[in-house]
Amino acid sequence: MTTSDLDPMERLLAERACERLILELVRRLDLGEPSTVSDLFTPDGVWEWPYDQRRIEGREALREYFGSRPADRLSRRMCTNILVTVESPDTATATTYFATYRVDGYTESTLVPPRLPANVGHYQDTFRKIGSAWLLAQRTLVLPFGGPTERLVSSAES
Asked: pTM surpassing 0.85?
């Protein structure tokens, strides 16, 4: 079966499921459930950043990696230009552009003054359908613009 043999509604549903998966991952990272990001990956799923040879493989390793984010980290990712390509009834790829605004040292109910994004780049994703669920098989981070995470100075430290 080729992708041209796919029913247009099946293709649309697959594209939407993959797009939603991308957005759910970002929501979990930014709004306080980072360790559960691993549930969005296949059991042998991979997250990698070739720039510094970082490669995390398997759900348990992903749970530990994403769960180890600093508790005082505030982040918001703006994702756009999500282009999902369905390659077969159970595989797809996507490219997603993003900008990440991020600081460490955040305390609840603090308004952080605006700043430039810490990172701007794109993700290259590969998806696999297992049963009725689409999951991330691999996410590769491409980061042409990046820098260290700023640490906020609390009023007690200044």
From this structure: yes
